[in-house]
Amino acid sequence: MTSHLLLGIDTGGTYTDAVLFSEAAGVVAKAKALTTRHDLAVGIAGAVEAVLDKANVPVTAISLVSLSTTLATNALVEGQGGRAGLVMIGFGPEDLKRDGLVEALGSDPVLFLPGGHNVHGGETPLDMSALDEALPTLANQVSSFAIAGYFAVRNPAHEKRVRDRIREVSHLPVTCSHELSSKLGGPRRALTTLLNARLVSMIDRLIGSCEDFLKVRGIHVPMMVVRGDGALISAAEARLRPIETILSGPAASLVGARHLTGLENAVVSDIGGTTTDVAVLEKGRPRLDAEGAVVGGFRTMVEAVAMRTYGLGGDSEVRINDRGLRAQIDLGPRRFLPLSLAAALHGDAVLSVLERQLRATHAGRHDGRLAVRTGLPDHLASGLQPQEQALYDRIGMVPVALADVLLSTPQRATLDRLVARGLVHICGITPSDAMHVLGRQAQWNAAAARLGLEIAARLKDGSGQSVAPSAEGLAQMIVDRLTRQSSEVILQGCLGEDGAGTIDPATSLAVDRALKREPGIVRFSIGLDRPLVGLGASAPVYYPAIADMLATDAAIPPEADVANAVGAVVGQVRASVTVFVTTPEEGIFIVNGAGASERFLDQEQAFGVARHRARTMALETARANGAEEPAATMWEEIDAPEVEGGRKLIEARFIASASGRPRIAHH
């Protein structure tokens, strides 16, 4: 049983999960540890030690380690990453205006060199004198370089020459655009390459800290990383192309969902503390975003899962609007620290504040809410404005009542800025607290949850009635609201996938009546055409009701809480290569891609060479990415319209895709 265990690790925003998995027995053990942002190795070590301890197996039983991570995605969304120098070959400054390249560059340096190629791979001579002049200075200002050449996907010779010169002089990491994408569209390819260069040092640190920990523990096995399309690549390749790991976490959860449920077609919804992710499984594979993944507002050329993310989770802020005749409840998009969790961490400090507020004769505006520092190290809390610093000083490592912190109305905005910077948590009621009151969740402090909901239930609506008769009554209202809001975001995601775009289920009368199943002369009904797979630690308590509202079956696997880590180890290695044949003039055929340009006088001969190149290169790349015994499939797309009674070739594309399971260590 202990032979060939696979270790899956997922570093999420809140938790790092670890799973020991065997092909025969499935999940053998699972464990979680809090993610430590300033030093990821701590969270990884915590989760891995815990899972080894639970399984009670020797480290020699592990034959493969695989990592999925939201680190690259979060870094791009939060605008972090190193400074990169961009070198454009054959482009001019006006090309920066396209595809958001100027915004993405910010203050990073850019250099234009004469050179590049045409669509058939013919060259304009490359002149590197400007590079040689600028390099000594530039090398001290950036942490990596990105190179994009005109039509480099047809002929990468100039990118390679510039790369070799930069490495020779600076010894810094260099990313070439032809290594990331075979699609045309220079500026967007340049943007993708630039973002990749920025991420290099960060992913390098993550993989490095993971490898160091494994070495110390005596785990000497191949290490894989999940790519944004759900396929695996070797850690060495991920270091060169970290951009491919954007959306790695969500992709892994889809692969995990497919494996754990056995479903070919499903809607997958993953509820976390802060967000809900919605995506579609089609014929056993995650649906990919045809246009390229959008991250942090930039559309890249990275093939990644078509994942829609909404600000709704178990720890979402509960907002009670008591102005109307009947109180309305809304959830999110901000994340709160649930009162039940705050009390589990800080005990009496939280309970005594809530008890005092519940006993008071007059309700205060900020009742049921507390503030506490998140515990970020001091150097990350530097650079605060004087009023921010003053407020931060009043908030300590033990939660204090908001009423005692906010002494004037403008301070509310100051507090919001501290929360946005990740320095302070607001503690308040959340759906997780409602679940504790209803007895459907019990991992934290239920007494604090009940006090918080009792305080909130006393609020009066516009007709002078309490918003809810009891803590239980309010808890049920909150859970009903979560069911409804989750159904809306899942519908929104699915309508988007159907290409139906902009129907907002929150405001559509027909959708509202269908979801409520309201009787009427006109009957509306709504549903999904496939099961709903619910993932996340709290999936079993939320998703049955959501699936019911969407008139479909719920599929909630027993390991729903660690689907990402499972997806990290059951994935396949996949590589795809495209080779092009074009005709610059009658009777001449040029083969481009997967090697140097070649010229032929015979179409069939050119096609044969292109097929062979694509297939050979796909298998080689799959092996380089860590596949054991890859198999290749081929397909062809030939554009040759009828012109004056004869067929005239415009372009032929030969696409080979190779896939296989990752290599494992044989002890």
From TrEMBL:
Pfam families with a match to the protein in the record: Hydant_A_N, Hydantoinase_A
Gene Ontology biological process terms in this record: glutathione metabolic process
Listed GO MF terms: 5-oxoprolinase (ATP-hydrolyzing) activity
SUPFAM superfamilies: Actin-like ATPase domain
GO cellular component: cytosol
PANTHER family tied to this protein: 5-OXOPROLINASE, 5-OXOPROLINASE RELATED
Protein name: Hydantoinase/oxoprolinase family protein
Annotated organism of origin: Sinorhizobium mexicanum
